[in-house]
Design goal:
The strands form 2 sheets. A 16-stranded parallel barrel has the order 3-5-8-11-14-17-21-24-27-25-22-18-15-12-9-6. It has a 10-stranded parallel sheet with strand order 2-4-7-10-13-16-19-23-26-28. The radius of gyration is 22 Å and the shape is elongated. It has helices at 14-17, 43-51, 59-67; strands at residues 72-81, 86-88, 94-104, 113-115, 121-123, 126-128, 143-145, 148-153, 156-158, 165-168, 171-176, 179-183, 188-191, 196-201, 204-208, 214-217, 229-235, 238-240, 247-249, 253-254, 257-259, 262-264, 271-273, 280-282, 285-287, 301-303, 313-324, 332-333, 338-347. The protein is 6% helix and 37% strand. By secondary structure, it is mainly beta.
Length: 368
């Protein structure tokens, strides 16, 4: 139980104030007087957590802290957690990490944090999911968001046995400067019908084993389920070394946008659009590594509908996309889908040393 529980009696929750997503990601949060996760621990365990060698499952203590609905901090230290999701469901709660790491215990499958409430603010949280798990897949995602009007700033997640961060059937979520690395599946997945109005700013996504750095889709299993996701915005991403695609707008992504940023050394296309409609890709640099460092033969940018036929009109625009460096296949592959407008540049050489020849020539023009 909290030992300083009465401290917040007269303090309004910052999460409630931020529920309109007007929060300034760079503004400081005054956490003076807030209780700490350490307050929920017995003295001996508290000392071990602070020293970084605690091996006790602290999920019950973290769950108790979350269930109070009070704002609190997670100070420097290592806090082991198991599976069986710790659910954040109290509206307006704010949790601030000030150096502490929530570390997955080995062989304890389950979601790490489940954010299902409304108006919740998470800032500076750090999670480590690198411990060996019995299973690999979405059941071992480290952070899963299903709520609404959520603000997540400076989240760092390492090594999930599933995906590092999953946004699933959520709406109105702002994610600012996440650092997501070494996931088995996706570093960031935004998925499944009814997901809409998600803004991701300056994500850093490095290395996946199996899937994408950033995957947006109405059907995470890539099946034809008839659902759609709307208004997903990815701004200024930095992505490298994906086990599959750098950034994919997959099945039925409508009115989504990827702008700015840098994608390098994916196993499959750096930028991939499937069966989307009215999307905008703008100002992204695809920077290919030397041949010796490339994971596989791939196209720089590809549009390849999976379920829609050759007559599918995607009404999508590609503006100021640059593919730079050597390519073994095509800098741009437009596939079968009708693209509304192309304004792209290939500053690339093919494997035989000549300029890479996109299947549809680069340049500007309305292709309808």
């Amino acid at each position: 139980m909290w030992t300083r529980r009465n401290v917040l009696a007269g303090i309004a929750g910052l999460g409630a104030a931020a529920s309109g997503l007007d929060i300034d990601a760079d503004a400081s949060i005054d956490t003076r007087g807030w209780p700490s996760l350490l307050d929920a621990l017995p003295p001996r365990i508290r000392a071990a957590a602070q020293a970084g060698h605690c091996e006790v499952d602290l999920s019950p203590a973290l769950r108790d802290a979350v269930e109070t609905g009070l704002n609190f901090v997670i100070p420097a230290g290592i806090y082991p957690i198991a599976g069986d999701a710790i659910e954040l469901r109290n509206s307006g709660q704010c949790i601030v990490g000030t150096g502490g790491v929530l570390r997955r215990l080995p062989e304890r499958d389950g979601i790490g944090l489940l954010v299902s409430g409304k108006g919740i603010v998470l800032r500076g949280l750090r999670l480590n999911g690198t411990a060996p798990m019995r299973a690999r897949g979405h059941q071992n995602d480290m952070v899963k968001v299903t709520g609404s009007r959520i603000v997540i700033v400076d989240l760092a997640v390492l090594g999930a046995a599933g995906s590092n961060l999953r946004i699933d059937r959520a709406n109105t979520v702002d994610i600012v400067r996440p650092v997501l690395t070494d996931a088995y599946q996706n570093n960031l997945i935004i998925c499944n019908g009814s997901t809409r109005d998600i803004r991701v700013t300056s994500p850093v996504c490095r290395r996946t084993t199996l899937q994408n750095n950033i995957f947006v889709t109405a059907s995470e299993g890539s099946t034809e389920n008839g659902e759609t996701v709307f208004a997903i915005t990815i701004s200024d991403p930095t992505c490298s070394d994906a086990g599959d695609t750098g950034i994919e707008l997959g099945y039925h992504c409508f009115e989504c946008q990827v702008s700015g940023g840098y994608v390098s050394n994916s196993t499959n296309p750096a930028l991939l659009q499937r069966d989307g409609k009215r999307n905008l890709w703008k100002g992204v640099l695809v920077d290919n590594q030397p041949y010796a460092n490339q994971h596989k033969d791939y196209d720089g940018v590809a549009v390849t509908p999976q379920w829609e036929g050759a007559s599918w009109q995607s009404e999508t625009e590609f503006r100021d996309i640059v593919v730079r460096g050597p390519v073994r296949r095509s800098a741009f592959y437009w596939g079968q889908s009708g693209i509304r407008r192309i304004d792209c540049t290939a500053r690339a050489n093919s494997v035989n040393g000549t300029d890479a020849n996109p299947i549809t020539p680069t340049g500007s023009g309305d292709l309808k």
